[in-house]
Structures are given as structure tokens and as C-alpha cells.
Amino acid sequence: MALALSSTVAPRFIPQRLPRVCLALGEDTVEDMLATAESMARDNPFLEFRLDYLKQPLAALPKIHRFLETHQYVTAIGTCRRADNGGKFKGSLASELEVLTKAHAAGCQLVDLEMQSALKAKPDAIARLRGRAGLIISFHDFHATRNLDETLAKMLKIPADFYKVVGTATTLSDNVAMMKFLQANSGQHSLIGVCMGEQGVISRVLGVRAGSAFTFGAVDPSAGLKTAPGQISARDLRSIYRIDQVDAATRIYGVAGDPIGHSLSPVIMNTALRRENVNGVYLPLHAKTLKDLLHCVREIPLHGLSVTMPYKQSIVPHLDNTDAHTAKIGACNTVVRGAEGKLYGFNTDIAGVVRPLEQRITIENAKVLVLGAGGAARAAVFGLKERGAEIWVLNRTSVKGQKLARQAKAHTMKRADLHKVAFDVIVNATPVGMGNTRDCPLKDEEIQARVVFDMVYDPVETHLLRVARTKGIAVIPGVEMFVQQAARQFEIWTGKPAPAGDMLRAVTIALQERAAVPKPKA
Ligand code: NAP
Predict the structure, then answer these.
(1) Is the pLDDT of residue 221 over 70?
(2) Does the annotation mark 288 as catalytic?
(3) Which range marks the domain in which residue 371 is found?
(4) Residue 460 domain flag
(5) Which of 88, 158, 337, 394 has its CB 3.0 to 4.6 Å from that of 52, i.e. a possible disulfide?
(6) For the domain that residue 448 is a member of, what is the CATH number?
(7) Is the CB of 372 under 6 A from ligand 1?
(8) Residue 98 counted as domain residue
(9) Nearest Cα residue to 388 out of 412, 368, 359, 413
């Protein structure tokens, strides 16, 4: 997108086309900041030096100067945000302006001055600063996303090259407000707009689609190296969300749930979209209420949605139509938004169960034990029954198991009677075994079948699967179900066959990377 730079800015200061992602450097020593800059500048040639994070910003600038002289391809922003406005700088306004002036002399083509300071400063001091550097006037609201137009009107009283408006998203709808604001105003002014917070994650990708000149990425948010809540790593913005390719025609997909931060769906789905050359992006939507989610789906507008806990059941009455599986199971994990805005629901968990199993055995007449009676168990029971399997349900709360068995014309099974039937397949549809390699839904001697299918996918090799494998039983890990239910979603949304092999590789790598990160001590 070409930038509508204000006519007065000296073009030598700023490249005509800025990269989409500015990497925010928030280390607390200049040595660490420059070490990060050094290691990341090739891939991220647009850097923000958060000078307010340094104890002595003025003393650090000669080192930053040397770095920028030897890395001429880098575009740099110098920022020295005051503590009152969400930064760490505690000096006077005059010293803040001095830091920014010297940051420009050190090679920062752009400097960021918050609106509150700019309004207090003398206009000629601001004009002098802008005469030298490209000036960003910024405003951060750490509580809400509100009064965006009023804020911009205030900012426009200060002549500048960019106006940066940052809110905090407490709902998904806050992102909608930010998108509308950017769409309405980015034609006349060079804007940067984003919502902070976990619920604002989507604005970091969709903001540029709506007209934000660029967005901010973190070095490594999981290591605490971020300068604003909700920041995504610059690497993920580029490699997972392909932010450089996002444009007005990009179709938007997402996964909605609460919580959603640890979902692997964005990794798997964005891999599929990239592999199949679909101009689409798939985002995590942290929806705290169904109402907020539905508003977001209608307004953004999303083309397709994966639905996860706790909305799989509650979304069903809000859909305009559903497939037969959704109606039978009473749960929907896939939504398509039709051209006319209507919402159509599907359940692809059945494909997630059936596809891996039919690659191993003939499902017709197979004897299958399903452990659990929740949503995933219902998908297994109805899906396998439809394919002609004979099903037994064993659930912790027996009345729930009985009810499901009745509805699906299946049998129930008591734990004590497990040895009485020789099963072809055991399916674990409980969360037992999730997050550790210790817990198991069955005792070792109870694990007797030709195939054991564990829906739990983290860890990849659960205790149940390990025991089954040592007994020579064929195993199906939950990642296969995860991939196949996602593959079916992809097919419904795009009409193209899903690259299931690539999806499986992507999710396996992500799980391995996750397992390698040390868990925080309780
Ligand atoms: P759900 O609706 O909450 O149902 C959970 C079921 O597990 C209930 O029947 C519950 O029994 C039983 N259960 C819970 N804790 C138990 C325990 N400690 N001991 C014995 N039984 C227990 O959950 P869901 O959506 O069906 O999901 C079940 C599992 O499948 C989860 O681990 C989920 O991650 C996994 N899953 C995987 C995929 C995939 O793609 N691989 C897809 C969907 C689900 P009560 O009735 O007694 O409460």
C-alpha cells in the first residue's frame, strides 16, 4: 500500500513504502537491544528503539548511531514514552524532546511522541523536531477502545507525518471499531491503528488490511520480550499470518473460543492456506461471550469460522442452517458465512474420527468402545455408527453414557465388564492423559483391541498410546483427528482438497516446539 505521507515531510527521512511490521525492541540495556537488532535486522529491517526502556537513553544513542550507520537498510523509530502514558521515561518534557531530537541525529528516521506530550510542548519545539525527523504522534488507551474519532481530531491539531491510535480490546467488537475507524480515515491521513490485549490480536493483522500503515511485532512474546500486551512475534506475523500478502481481497477465517491463546488451529490452517495459494488468513478470536463473537463474525466479515469450547453447542441456535451431523450431535465446529451474510453450520469432528480409522480398518461391523459422552464422544459414536460399526459407550457419569447410547442405538458398557467384549477399536474421547504422560483412562490390562485411538493430542504420545504400542496394538494419535477435522473445514471453506500431510507436519513441529519450552513453575 503506498503511504499518503503529508506533503511537508522531507522524503529523504522515510522510505516511500515502509515494511508492514515494525519490530519493537524493549530490552533494558542498549547492549541487549543492539544484540537483538543485530540478530533480527536482516529479516526485520524496520525497528522501533524503545529508548524509554533504557536507564540512560542519551548515553545509549552513540551506540545506536553506530549500529544504524552500519545497517543503512534499517528504518528506525526512536520512542521515549513517558511513564504517565504507558512508557518508562520519567524525565522532564524538555529532556524527552531532547532524547527524540538526538535519536534522529543518531539515525532514527522517525520519532514517536505521544499526543499528551505534544499538546504540552510549544508548537515551535514540535515543528523543529518534525523539521528534522518524520514525526509520529501517538495515543495509547490502556483500558478500552473508545472515542477514536475524537482522539484523531485532537491529534490532527499537531502537524505530523503519522498518527498512531492504540486502544485496548476487551471484546472482539473493539477490533471492529478499530477496523471501521481505519477504513474511514486512512484515505486522508497516514494512520497506524491497533488494539492491545489478547482480544486485540486480530487487529494486529487486520489493521493493515483496513488501512494501518504498518503494525508492531514483538521479538519473542513467550519470553516476555514484548512492549505491549497482546503483541504477536514479528516472525509469526510474517510466517504464520503472511502479513506482507494481506490485502483488501484477503478472506478472513478464524477460530473462536475461550480460552484460545494456545490453539494450534492458526498454525495448521495458515499452513494449508499458504500451501494451496488461497488468499486468506486465519486468526485466533478470543471471544468471552457468544454475542460478541456473533457481532464480530457479521461485522468483520469472516468467511469461515472454527468453533471450539465453550461455543460448540451454544452457537447452533444462531445458525441459519446446519448439516445433518451438526443437528444429530447438537454441536457445531465449523461455520461458513454465505455471501448474503447467512451462517451455515457443519460438524467436521466426525470426519476427524472416521478418516484416520478407515485408513486402518474396515469400519463396517467393527466393535468399538468409546470412552466419554461429551461432544467429541458424540461425534465418534454417531459417525462410526453411521458407517456400520457396533458401539459401546463407557462414561464416568453413567446416565450421560446411557443417554448417548440410547440416542445413537448403541450399547453401554460397565467398567467391570470390559473384559467380556473383544473390541476392534478403543476410542478415548475424555481429556484424561492431556498435558502429561502419566494419566490413562484405562488400566494396562484393560487395553485390549486391534486399534487404540486417543483424541488427546498434547502430548502426541499419551500414556494410553504408549501402553497400546508396547502391546503391539496399532495406534491413532489425536493429532490425526485434529488434522482431519481441520482438513474437512478447509475443504468446506475453499472447495479445494486439503494438504493434510503439510498440516500434520506443521502441527507436529508446533507441538514439539511447545514441549521443548520449559513449563513455568507453579
Ligand atoms: P467434553 O464435552 O467436556 O466431554 C468430556 C467427557 O470426558 C465427558 O464424558 C466426561 O465425563 C469425561 N471425563 C472428563 N474428565 C474425566 C475423568 N477425569 N475421568 C473420566 N472421564 C472424564 O469434552 P469433549 O469436547 O468431548 O473433548 C474430549 C476430549 O477430546 C478432550 O481431551 C479434547 O481435547 C479431545 N478432542 C480432540 C479433538 C482432536 O481434534 N484431536 C477434537 C475434539 C476433542 P462426565 O460426563 O462424567 O463429565
Answers:
(1) no
(2) no
(3) 361-482
(4) yes
(5) 88
(6) 3.40.50.720
(7) yes
(8) yes
(9) 368
List the residue whose alpha carbon is closest to atom 27 of ligand 1: 376
Q: Which of 312, 400, 420, 443 is catalytic?
A: 312
Q: Which atom of ligand 1 is nearest to the CA of 373?
A: 9
pLDDT at residue number 6: 41
Q: Do 33 and 81 belong together in one domain?
A: yes
Q: Residue 415 pLDDT more than 70?
A: yes
| Chain segment 106-121, per-residue pLDDT in tens | 999 999 999 999 999 9
Nearest CA to ligand 1 atom 43: 376
Q: Are 348 and 492 in contact (CB under 8 A)?
A: yes
CB-CB contact of 318 with 343 (8 Å): yes
Mean pLDDT confidence for 438-460:
96
Distance CA 177, CA 141 (A): 14
281 with 305, same domain? yes
374 C-alpha to ligand 1 centroid (Å): 6
Residue 457 CB–ligand 1 contact under 6 Å: yes
Cα(474)–Cα(494) distance, rounded to whole angstroms?
33
User: Of the residues 248, 271, 298, which one is the last residue of a structural domain?
Assistant: 248
Share of the chain above pLDDT 90, in %: 88
* Identity of the amino acid at 116: Q
For 71-129, the pLDDT digits (tens) are 999 999 999 999 999 999 999 999 999 999 999 999 999 999 999 999 999 999 999 99
pLDDT of 10 strictly over 70: no
Q: How far is the CA of 454 from the centre of ligand 1 (A)?
A: 11
Cβ-based neighbour number of residue 317 at 10 Å = 8
Amino acid letter, 282 = Y
The total number of structural domains that make up the chain: 3
Average pLDDT value over all residues in the chain: 93
Which residue from 60, 50, 30, 25 is spatially nearest to 40, judged by alpha carbons? 25
- C-alpha span between 199 and 170 (Å, rounded): 6
